[in-house]
Design brief:
The protein is of the alpha+beta class and 463 residues long. 26% of the residues lie in helices and 16% in strands. This is MM3350-like domain-containing protein.
Length: 463
Amino acid sequence: MSLFRDGDRQDFESFYNGLVSASGGERVPRPPPAIPSGKPKFVKLLPGDNGEGMPESFFGDPHELVPKAGQKGEVQAWGLYPYGRDNIAEFDGVAMMFRTMKTQTKYDEWAGKPTPESQFMKVILDRKRNQLANLDLLGLDKRDVILRISLIILNDSEGQPRFWRRFRVSAGIKMGTFQDKVVSPIMGWVRNLHCYHFTDFRDGSLYGPDGSTAIDRQHICQVGYDYLPDDKYMLAHLFGKEGDKIGYLYDFGDKWYHEIEVERILPLEESYGRVELVDGKGMCPGENMQGTFHWERMLQEYDAGSYVQKNKTKREILNCPNYNDFQKPPSLFSIDAFDHALTTTRLTAALNSPNSVRAGAKQFTMPIAPTPELDAYHRRNLKKGQSIVRDYDPDSFGYWQETRADGKDRRSGGVCALCGKPGGVELKTCSGCRAILYCSVEHQKIHWKDVHKHQCSRKYLKK
């Protein structure tokens, strides 16, 4: 996994060596990161901390922060950073990393010494919570919407998105479930592997997985510092009308930037809550392939490359974790094709399973020597109805480990296992395994005949 965006990676290498290359081949020291000027208006800095590595915005008063929009009229990441290419927030990842290293022993949340960043963000988060508590959704949560999600900046020769999916979903679905059971499978990302957040471009507010243990969460200072829990808010909280756009950032390390456009809001009488994949274009990039900007350059080389070079790139993609189920040779893989059948299979499987446990995100482990003590360490925080699942890698001594839920989802964040309709208290539980939810008896019967009788029987017999 990449730690920085491409430019940041180059900066880090230069910083690590203490030198950068200037014109003419002369090597000169890298200039130190800028230090915000003046005295902070709100946050308290402990002795020895001059704010180096923090964005300038943290020296202001969070109560007075008015987020500024970029060139597209969209607010990114609470409005904390300046804007750069393609309206994406600019940050100095190297300075942020070294700030963390320098100050991590100075501040202690448990001892009443929160970091300046935490002090600032608490005000921002509390203010947004209060706004949401009084927000009238005007019935949007009862309506279905047609959305198109695309990887931004990756356009074809006509300036249209090169990788996108169009689908139908209820605006009343919780954002956490939306990402886990809809967005991840239809885009082609691995569920519960990396951290992510959604952006309301109207004010830059962020929503992400509460308690995520994904390894890339360590880079959260580069993508907004904090977010509201997405399992408490609905998709309808992110937009207000047709044509609105929503930001979706996947993987805080590599940084895959997406844009979700609300193409149509369906009338109430035509809204039945079902998740439907309509169409799409292009195959998903490989997990851990260094993010949107690197992928853009890689595609330029791919388009101009020879047959041999193209096959090499295809093999690299197909060796990534999100293509374990492709099961076809590279010759049958096309970057610009859209595999509707594979995408539908992934969506169906996601709907027909419990929500991911964010506190036990997928991680690859290469233990030196497995011991009972190590197992006890991993199981110490398991809650009732959860278990640790390990998928061993036949090519190494390591394994993929993830915490999974064995019981049914909470109705407030659950969806029908057949159609994906959110229903809250209206969802009914399978009386056999008590692990699957349905929106109606009719859908339970259909799902039983086609899928669930095999799952339910096995699970029921184990009891």
